[in-house]
């Protein structure tokens, strides 16, 4: 334990205060509802998180997979997320993990991508060119994409180290697996992590946590993974299918945009390319890659409303003038007759 504390404290004080667990924005945002509805999460294993580009999907196998994923996304029966995770711990580059199905495929290559997406993600069948293997145990994915966001680069590795230490001390190294992952949305909530763990009934669901610190790691292991109890004050939400009808409208209305939500896509218009990055404390940007800020659309609803009101007011005014004129004429005739 002493070694972990020393490593965490080795982070320069200035970086820890701006990007680490002591930064001013910690606990300042509402976590609940910051995860949009989805029903499947695909993780592609690729290199070490320390070597990832800010846009890890812009090179090699992740680029090929992301393109095929985007091209066929409309054909998916289930809303699906794609995230890159680090190799190691039994996985190698090209391995694919699918949750909550708890299945994996080994050594996917560039030439395999289209067929894999077609078989597994579109048709919901086993990949015809690979061997499907079952996953067991619990998986914790920690956002440690430091080249994309400095906060994740400071918080992620410290959390992974603490997890490994606590898991080892409990003798659970063969049952709980911790992996770094690329950006999952919500920089400001770092440390961010997703836990895939079976509940008492054996059902697996991905649960998202934010503002996690090394001090919270024992609770994640002993409360969430061991007992299936959600840590409410750190909960961002969990994997769930999008409700239909009126209930769906309520969910969208109360979502907190996090860079990936339907609300944000509908309400903002970007000039150029945007990565959905947040600003750090004291005006310091957390992103290693600067992008334009989204610009809100001007709506025409208000203008239409005023136009309709103006027409109504004109009609009412004309009616009032006509009524007054009628009364005046009648009064004039009355005076003459008298």
Regarding quaternary structure, how should these chains be classified?
Answer: single chain
SSE run: HHEHEEEHEEHEEEHEHHEEH
Number of strands: 12
Rg (CA only): 28 Å
Task: Write the CATH homologous superfamily of the largest domain.
Answer: Glutaredoxin
Regarding CATH, which class of the largest domain?
Alpha Beta
Per DSSP, what share of the residues sits in E-state strands of 2 or more residues?
15-25%
Side-by-side strand order of the widest sheet: 2-1-3-4-5
Into which percent range does the helicity of residues fall? 25-40%
Low-confidence stretches: 1-9, 246-286, 289-316
Number of domains: 3
What can be said about this structure in brief?
With 338 residues, this protein is of the alpha+beta class. It has helices at residues 2-9, 13-19, 60-72, 113-122, 150-169, 217-227, 245-253, 262-267, 301-337, and strands at residues 40-45, 80-85, 96-99, 103-105, 133-134, 138-143, 176-181, 193-198, 204-209, 235-238, 268-269, 295-296.
Report on the structure:
With 338 residues, this protein is of the alpha+beta class. It has 3 domains: 2-238, Glutaredoxin (3-Layer(aba) Sandwich); 255-296, no CATH class; 303-338. It has helices at residues 2-9, 13-19, 60-72, 113-122, 150-169, 217-227, 245-253, 262-267, 301-337; strands at residues 40-45, 80-85, 96-99, 103-105, 133-134, 138-143, 176-181, 193-198, 204-209, 235-238, 268-269, 295-296. Helix 2 (13-19) packs across helix 5. The termini are far apart. The chain crosses the membrane at residues 314-334. InterPro entries: Aim32/Apd1-like, Thioredoxin-like_sf.
